[in-house]
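Q: Given only this backbone (167 positions), what sequence would you predict?
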C-alpha cells in the first residue's frame, strides 16, 4: 500500500478527529470511555494543528488512514514529557480498517525525520499506555528505548510508559 505522509488539511480535521476518537475508544484506552475529558483533546484537531504539527497518513486514494501530533519543542502546550532539546510525538492513531499496513510506522518515521530537522533537537520522545501494543512494536522497530525514569500519570490510575530516540 502506498502511503503519503503530509500535513492535515482543514477539511480533514473532522475525519481525523473521528479516527483518533474511535481508535482510543475502540482500544479501551480512555479510562472513562465516552465521558473521558481527554476525548475532547483527541477530537480537537483544529486546535492541535494551530498549536503544533498534525500529520496524516493518506492512502493512494487520498483518504486519511491515521494521524499523529508532532511537537517540535518541549515546554509548549502539546508537549507532555518533552524537555528542552527534545521533540515529542503524541496522539498516534490509525483507523481500524487501515491497521497493519504500515501507516502507524510511516507516521512515526515522519516524526523522526521532522525532529532531525529541528535545530538543537537531540531526542524524540513519546508516551504510551501498556495496552498500546502496536505502538510498542513500532517503537522497537524504529529504535526507541524505554525511559522508565520518566514514566508519568496524566490522571490518577493511568500510567504512561515513556520512550526516547536519540537523534
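A: Predicted residues:
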Amino acid at each position: 500500500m502506498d502511503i503519503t505522509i503530509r500535513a492535515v488539511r482543514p477539511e480533514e480535521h473532522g475525519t481525523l478527529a473521528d479516527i483518533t476518537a474511535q481508535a482510543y475508544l475502540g482500544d479501551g484506552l480512555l479510562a472513562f470511555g465516552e465521558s473521558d475529558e481527554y476525548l475532547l483533546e483527541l477530537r480537537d484537531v483544529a486546535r492541535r494543528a494551530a498549536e503544533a504539527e498534525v500529520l496524516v497518513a493518506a492512502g493512494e486514494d487520498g483518504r486519511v488512514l491515521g494521524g499523529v501530533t508532532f511537537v517540535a519543542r518541549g515546554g509548549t502546550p502539546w508537549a507532555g514529557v518533552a524537555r528542552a532539546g527534545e521533540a515529542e510525538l503524541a496522539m498516534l492513531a490509525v483507523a481500524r480498517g487501515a491497521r497493519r499496513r504500515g501507516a502507524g510506522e510511516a507516521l512515526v518515521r515522519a516524526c523522526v525525520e521532522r525532529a532531525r530537522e529541528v535545530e538543537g533537537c537531540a531526542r524524540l520522545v513519546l508516551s504510551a499506555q501498556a495496552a498500546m501494543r502496536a505502538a510498542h512494536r513500532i517503537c522497537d522497530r524504529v529504535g526507541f528505548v524505554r525511559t522508565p525514569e520518566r514514566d508519568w500519570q496524566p490522571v490518577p490510575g493511568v500510567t504512561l510508559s515513556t520512550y526516547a530516540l536519540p537523534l
